[in-house]
From TrEMBL:
Family, similarity comment: Belongs to the binding-protein-dependent transport system permease family.
Compartments (UniProt record): Cell membrane
Pfam families in alphabetical order: BPD_transp_1 (PF00528)
Organism: Paenibacillus haidiansis
Designated name of the protein: ABC transporter permease subunit
Domain of life the protein comes from: Bacteria
Gene3D superfamilies in UniProt: MetI-like (1.10.3720.10)
Ranges for region Disordered: 1-20
CDD domains associated with the record: TM_PBP2
Amino acid sequence: MEMQQITNPAAMTQKETPPSKRRKWLKKLYSQRHIQIMALLGIAWMIIFNYVPMYGIIIAFKDYDIIRTISEAPWVGLEHFKEFLSDENFVYIMKNTLGISLLKLLTFPLPIIFALFLNEVRSLRFKKAIQTISYLPHFLSWVVLGGILATWLSDVGIINEILMALNLIDQPISYLAEPKYFWTIVITSDVWKELGWSAIIYLAAITSISPEMYEAARIDGAGRFQQMWYVTLPAIKATISILFILAVSGVLNSNFDQILVLRNALNDSASNVIDYYVYYTGISSGRYSYSAAIGLFKSVIAITLLLIANQVSKKLNDTSLF
């Protein structure tokens, strides 16, 4: 049987070329020129202040001092990293850093719980009052809050007066002079300052939940706690996962401002963390290459933790940063 080739005359003709994608893209870019200029300014700022200074990282591998330029400084390789790992202060610096950071990580659920309960408040006036009170400490610097805490925790401070009035202690305690109290003070003051502010993003995520989901849950007989557990928490799971990944990546960050304000020579054994040690060796002692190596060491650990947390989150609940 002879096979016949069927041809489509229309297919043989050349199709008309669509409008140039490049022209359409340029036209759209021009229509958004004001927004694009604002974005370009932000990108330029980030490149100048965040990426260009990264050239200075190479001093971690050099023996740099202020007399010579970075290019003139001799290469020493990994000597500064080896020195830090063999430093007699390494063990207790890492212990303090990890101890404070992991305890702060354990407080991660507190803003979620606060947002859940604040969302259940029906009185709008009372809700706004609670929000204002909880947000206010965030807008005060650690210099101000550090002065307040130093006054409250002094021998004649309000904390000692209350505890002595309740017969819980017999004599005043200098809390900031005792290393055993330092971690508790740091964690408690951090929660006090950031609890309300950290809850904002969770409250924003909760407001995006459809009211129909709550109505369906109420019809099924779910109470308020059941609605929080079975409706609210699953709906904001992605937000929680992203913020937890970022919190894990910053586990070596001990909030330098807070530590610098609250620490002193008497609580040094509990307050000497990586961030302060970098400041002390770099600024006070002038060992710029050594402090840069310590900072780079911390950054590498942070990136590693970020990648691990991101991968674990992707496997467990299919949510990740990238």
